[in-house]
Amino acid sequence: MSESTGTSPAPGAASDSDGQNPGGELKQAITPKLLLLFIVGDILGTGVYALTGRVAGEVGGAGWLPIILAFAVAMVTALSYLEMVTKYPRAGGAGHYIHKAFGMHFLTFMVTFAVLSSGITSASTSSVFLAENVLAAFGLTESMGADAARLISTIIAVCFVVLIACVNMYGVSESVKFNVVLTLIELTGLALVILVGFWAIGRGEADFSQVILFETPEDKGLFMAVIGATALAFFSMVGFEDSVNMAEEVVDPVRNFPRALITGLSITGVVYVLVSVTAVAIVPIGDLQTATTPLLTVVEVGAPNLPIGEIFPFISIFAVANTVLINMMMASRLLYGMSRQGVLPGFLRYVLPGRQTPWAGIVFSTALAVGLILTVRFVLNEETIGALGSTTALLLLAVFGLVNIAVLVLRKDTVRTKHYRTPTVLPYIGAFTTLFLVGPWAQETRNYVIAGALLGIGLVLYICSWIYNRAIRSRRTRFHDLD
Fold first, then answer.
1. Alpha-carbon gap, residue 227 to 66, rounded angstroms
2. Burial level of 461, CB count in 10 A (0-12/13-18/19+)?
3. What digits encode the pLDDT tens for the residues 46-98?
4. Partners of 250 in the β-ladder
5. CA quadruple 181, 182, 185, 186: dihedral positive or negative?
């Protein structure tokens, strides 16, 4: 998951606490083709590269089924986002829509902090996966023991998060064109997996009987296993919601957004299903489940005599590196913006002289990411990618459920501009399915613990800000610039 920065006032956006907007109108420079590539690049990334084996571990060779179900849930919610972004074509995303629907500043804060937390968990997941790919790229995974590999990969992940913090401190100007380059790298890696699959099929080495084989953990029935795997697979589908933050910079968003979002989500859904089918047809399910880098295993097994396996880990590294960068940028800017709004303590609004980067927000978000990685790996002793990837999905599923409800609530709010209107039944389906996947039947206890701890940190910060505002400034703790 990634997030656009530099947008206009929104929950958590950088606007002064007196309600004044220091910026002007954003330039509408994103064409339909660039928007499509942005959406595809935003969805592709760590999810499919890292979680293919883990989804197969839940349901066996039928790993494509949870992906299809996750795609369906994401598409229904995406249509709700389309109604919101064309009805209110401004930056802001979920927090803005939910505030318009319910008008509760505390709820707006918690939703915004949940989005922020999902960015940190996503970045932490990607950092660990990147570290494991670094070890694989240099052939070190097999040469060291499991404990040593776990320690070294953790050190690499932490160092990478700190490196990203340094880059953010210096100042990074993200452009859509750069996103296009990274999208092509991500697509190249996934295309290689699919081509290797065709290569193996052509040589008669693919076993398609595995594709319809359902295997579930001993303590789970088939239905509950599929539900749990769908909640996990949903991590692969997140990212589309970030594109709404580009609304004010898109040429004719009312016309171009629906086509681009539906097409982009459909492309990624097809790619993910093809990759899932290819993976289980080539690699035994047990090997795929235990593989640290499952798609690299697919490439090595499917084309053992080709040098593709030597370059694939580097492709994976590039595919997820930008996820970390953009998510950490988003998190630090949200912290900075909410501090300027007065709903978080004032120290988080400090910027670096000269570079004008939010150093306090960068340091705080980096500390959270590092703390998450170390806690999950050495305190909870959990498999990091599965735990943090699932937590990311949990946080966003809860947010998506509220967005679907907000669509129905805001039907009474009429606007003069023509906008997309999703069929009324779909937000009901979207709200039910996303909130259903938040339930304990679909989530593990660790996911609630991690998500609860992150939201608890946000709550503590909110209370500190509330006390300060009441006692010192004699003002209410609330967002500004929310119409």
1. 7
2. buried
3. 777 777 877 887 888 888 899 999 999 999 999 999 898 888 876 567 888 88
4. 30
5. negative
Cα–Cα distances in angstroms (integers) from residue 230 to residues 52, 223, 244, 400, in the given order: 12, 11, 24, 15
Using DSSP, how many helices (H) and how many strands (E) does the chain show? Answer: 16, 0
In this structure, what are the phi and psi dihedrals at residue 4, rounded to the nearest 5 degrees? -75, 145
- Give pLDDT tens digits for 271-317: 889 888 888 888 888 888 777 778 888 888 888 877 776 788 788 78
Task: Report the alpha-carbon distance of residue 332 to residue 272 in Å, rounded.
Answer: 30
Residue 300 confidence (pLDDT): 85
Cα dist. 232→53, 161, 329, 451 in Å? 11, 24, 25, 15
For residue 317, what is the enclosing H or E element?
A: helix 308-341
Those residues with Cβ within 8 angstroms of residue 428's Cβ, 6 or more apart along the chain or in another chain? 404, 408
How far apart are alpha carbons 348 and 152 in whole angstroms?
Answer: 32
Can you tell me whether residue 62 is helix, strand or coil? coil
Measured over the CA atoms of residue 83, residue 480, residue 99 and residue 106, the dihedral's sign is positive
How confident is the model at residue 96, as a pLDDT? 80
CB 435, CB 402: distance < 8 Å = no
Token pair belonging to 423: 């069929």
According to the model, what pLDDT value does residue 175 have?
43
Domains of the chain: 32-473 (1.20.1740.10)
Residue pair 206/197 in contact (Cβ under 8 Å)? The answer is: yes
Instruction: Count other Cβ atoms within 10 Å, centred on residue 343.
Output: 27
Q: Which residues of the chain are under the pLDDT cut of 70?
A: 1-30, 90-92, 171-180, 218-219, 242-249, 309, 355, 382-384, 473-474, 477-483
Are 383 and 354 in contact, with CB atoms under 8 Å apart? no
Cβ distance 117 to 395 under 8 Å?
A: yes
Residue 59: per-residue pLDDT: 85
Tokens linked to 139? 């052939």
Q: How many CB atoms lie within 10 A of CB 177?
A: 9
Which neighbouring-strand residues pair with 214? 60
Q: Which residues contact 191 (CB under 8 A, 6 or more apart)?
A: none
Query: Could you tell me where the beta strands, DSSP code E, fall in 208-267?
Result: none
pLDDT given at position 25:
45
The pLDDT score that the predictor gives to residue 483 is: 54
User: Could you give the 3-state DSSP secondary structure of residue 376?
Assistant: helix
